[in-house]
Amino acid sequence: TDWTGEQKLEYKVSIGEEPQIWRIPSDKAEAKMVAVIARQFIQEKKSILILVPKKEFFPLITQELSKRGIVYSCPISFLPERVKTVKLLVDWATIPSDSFKTRLVVEELINKGIAHVPGVKKDRKSTKQETIKKRIIEETEIAKLWESVDKKNDLFLVIKNLKDPNKTLIKIQDGLLNLSDLFINFKKEKRGEFIKQLAVVSGIWCNPSELMDDIIKITKLLNPQSITGLGWVQLNTMKKAKGLEADVVIMVGLEDDIVPNPRSDTIEESRLFYVSMTRAKEKLYLFHSYKRPRGISYGQELINKERSKFLDVIGRESKWKRP
């Protein structure tokens, strides 16, 4: 059936309070409010679950939690992209026979690394048709390598034994062979060569300022949590809420152009919303913001945003709150 907005929800709980529905001035204020509430209930030794409509909500919230020394678990990584690339290459060097990891590394090398081929969608400079065509040709050649992969020959072995490879595959072949050799046959006289080769192959940290930027970002991620360690908060998306529970649940982003997601089935979205609310054992906070960046919202309005129709069904007014 179609959602009519006329359904009524009835709350029947043996303990606890009615849900708090708050309208917050902005997305940044929302993140601060979440952290303030989390800190309060951590001191009362309560478990806390923060549920968001989508992963784009995590950065602001985790930043505010970190500022207050609150340890959290989050389903996505906030490591700088260059650090993620290094981790990928090191993971591959540890097990080069893993064809899936080899595929990811090869993709990284043609996207940004030593075998860079313009034309990938993320490369905004590559708009010419002939450039895109060249990219497709190179990707097709690389895809053909899988035809030789079997139980006896992993993808790295296939690349290693290539005969008469083209220029791109030569760069991939040389880069992976050098990286693998330095990882396996490390000697004192070659100290630092593996790290150097990582930079050469991946194309990162050639500029020292990039390395400093990444170190600063990682320090900001880790330092606040290691100072006070006030407690632990769990973050997740509403889609992953089933099976979770906490004394205090905070749901954010409840504007009508986000929840329900206009690109999804409204009935299914209503189920996700209901399941998310029922994760709370004692207290439930429902936040919607007066303004939200367009990159987060699905709608065009940036300010004076309407709250979710799911909140309207509850039949209670929102309270204006500031952190």
UniProtKB/TrEMBL annotation:
A GO term for molecular function: 3'-5' DNA helicase activity
SUPFAM superfamilies: P-loop containing nucleoside triphosphate hydrolases
Assigned GO CC terms: cytosol
Pfam family, one: UvrD_C
A biological-process GO annotation: recombinational repair
Keyword ATP-binding included in the entry's annotation: yes
Record-given protein name: UvrD-like helicase C-terminal domain-containing protein
